[in-house]
């Protein structure tokens, strides 16, 4: 039986499974601290999106370089997240969480004082470490929360990821419209500092850690393979998808990933558990995250662009400000939080397969409605709210599925890999959306035609349909049977 200590030095109550649980008050404070830390990350992943044109102008750079403000963050996040999740599993989640928040704050300060595009991109690389806050938080919750509150807590933290990303679009627009661009990162530094103080005070460190050492060869192979693949996806539109450089990067990424699987197979303490990747429910859970990441970015790019575009001869666009464009997405972002928190109750009432499948089905409905009709502002508000509710169910279910599939000492690592899958999907979605938009523009004066937006909404529906089709395979048959046979146990283990 394993115990842990709270920040004040008192031992937390041990559980039969070896996972310590804090008292109700301590658990609530832990949840507040983790929600704040995750919100600080989620907000800053999108807060720069409305200001990209402004940053391009203020830093006297080109569109190709300005896109790296986003791409560098995504690349760094994908490479560092599984590594930092594994470090947390090995050496303590609280310790790593505090270190990550400190580094994140340094990255924000670096961005706020950047004098050129190169310095800003370098700061964004440092900031990318913050994605690991999400899997670390899930692992901490699994140890620190009472069982009956765990589904709610995981759902809330998952919902904050999506809601924070939506809030970033609104807040980024407000700051870009009214203050110098450096305040975008001043805000991030303040949030990082607040999160760090709360984590120091309220987040307990568990003594339940994984055995073994950090798998540096596995981390290097995974990191280089992800860099090659994501760099090819990011640079494909500018270099050409059939160019030697892009094809070479894809081939290099595939070779490195094959080498990773060969090195990790049967290795004790491996960063990538090859057995997990062969496990159908785990593989499907990662695939669902990838489809969700791709589908989300079709909306992130299409809806603000539609809202801000001045209607041309075809009458497409609302001619709103950056701020109003973000506000049109706000109901959808707010819908994410209650939907995420409802995952446990839905699983208890209907079975563990339904939250993920239901989420993707709602995403499909919202996407189809937007594809069929998006000429009025009320349609964006209402139909994207349906998309947001579906997103909340998906985001709340993924970490719960992983918690059901892996042992306690693999929680951070497995959630980190799931976040990689979502990040790769996001890059694919963003580049595909950019390609659809670019190929549809006949001249700068004409703007983006309505057919391009319709195509993007249909692509969002296609990604959601694929996710819905996979969803039933993400749950083991034994788990589903147990869920339906023991309603009393479902209340404890939804």
Automatic annotation (TrEMBL):
Signal peptide positions are: none
The record's subcellular locations are: Cell membrane
Major place of localization?
Answer: membrane
Q: PROSITE patterns attached here? A: MFS (PS50850)
Q: Where is the Major facilitator superfamily (MFS) profile domain?
A: 30-479
What is its membrane topology?
Answer: Multi-pass membrane protein
Q: Does the keyword Ribosomal protein apply?
A: no
- InterPro entries per the UniProt record, alphabetical: MFS, MFS_dom, MFS_trans_sf
Task: Specify whether Transmembrane is a keyword of the entry.
Answer: yes
Location of region: Disordered: 1-24
Q: Which UniProt keywords apply?
A: Cell membrane, Membrane, Transmembrane, Transmembrane helix, Transport
Record-annotated membrane-spanning stretches: 31-52, 64-84, 96-115, 121-141, 153-175, 181-202, 214-234, 246-263, 283-306, 318-342, 354-375, 381-403, 424-443, 455-475
List the protein's name: MFS transporter
User: What organism does the record attribute this protein to?
Assistant: Microtetraspora glauca
């Amino acid at each position: 039986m394993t115990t842990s200590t709270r920040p004040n030095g008192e031992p937390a109550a041990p559980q039969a499974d070896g996972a310590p649980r804090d008292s109700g008050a301590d658990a609530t404070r832990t949840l507040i601290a983790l929600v704040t830390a995750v919100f600080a990350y989620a907000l800053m992943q999108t807060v720069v999106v409305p200001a990209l044109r402004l940053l391009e102008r203020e830093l006297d750079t080109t569109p190709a370089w300005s896109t790296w403000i986003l791409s560098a963050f995504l690349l760094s996040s994908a490479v560092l997240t599984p590594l930092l999740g594994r470090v947390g599993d090995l050496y303590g989640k609280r310790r790593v969480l505090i270190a990550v928040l400190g580094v994140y704050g340094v990255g924000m300060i670096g961005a706020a004082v950047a004098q050129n595009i190169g310095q800003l991109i370098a700061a964004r690389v440092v900031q990318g470490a913050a994605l690991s806050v999400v899997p670390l938080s899930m692992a901490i919750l699994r140890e620190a929360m009472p069982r009956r509150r765990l589904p709610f807590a995981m759902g809330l933290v998952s919902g904050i990821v999506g809601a924070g990303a939506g809030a970033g679009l609104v807040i980024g627009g407000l700051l870009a419209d009214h203050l110098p661009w450096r305040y975008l990162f001043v805000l991030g530094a303040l949030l990082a500092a607040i999160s760090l103080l709360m984590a120091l005070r309220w987040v307990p460190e568990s003594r339940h850690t994984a055995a073994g050492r950090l798998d540096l060869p596995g981390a290097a192979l995974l990191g280089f393979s992800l860099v090659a693949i994501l760099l090819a996806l990011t640079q494909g539109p500018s270099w050409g998808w059939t160019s030697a450089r892009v094809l070479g990067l894809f081939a290099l990424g595939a070779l490195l990933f094959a080498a990773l699987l060969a090195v990790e197979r049967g290795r004790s303490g491996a960063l990538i558990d090859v057995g997990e990747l062969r496990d159908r429910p785990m593989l499907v859970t990662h695939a669902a995250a990838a489809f969700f990441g791709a589908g989300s970015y079709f909306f992130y790019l299409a809806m603000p662009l539609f809202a801000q575009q001045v209607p041309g001869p075809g009458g497409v666009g609302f001619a709103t400000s950056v701020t109003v464009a973000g506000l049109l997405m706000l109901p959808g972002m707010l819908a994410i939080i209650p939907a995420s928190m409802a995952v446990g109750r839905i699983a208890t009432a209907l079975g563990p397969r339904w939250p993920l499948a239901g989420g993707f089905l709602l995403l499909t409905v919202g996407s189809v409605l937007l594809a069929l009709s998006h000429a009025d502002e009320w349609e964006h508000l209402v139909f994207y709210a349906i998309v947001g509710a579906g997103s909340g169910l998906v985001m709340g279910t993924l970490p719960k599925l992983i918690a059901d599939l892996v042992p306690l000492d693999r929680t951070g690592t497995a959630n980190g890999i799931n976040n990689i899958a979502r990040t790769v999907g996001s890059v694919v979605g963003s580049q595909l959306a950019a390609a659809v938009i670019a190929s549809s523009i006949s001249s700068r004066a004409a703007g983006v035609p309505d057919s391009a937006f319709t195509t993007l909404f249909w692509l969002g529906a296609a990604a959601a349909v694929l996710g819905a089709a996979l969803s039933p395979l993400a749950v083991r048959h034994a788990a589903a049977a147990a869920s339906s046979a023991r309603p009393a146990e479902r209340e404890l283990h939804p």
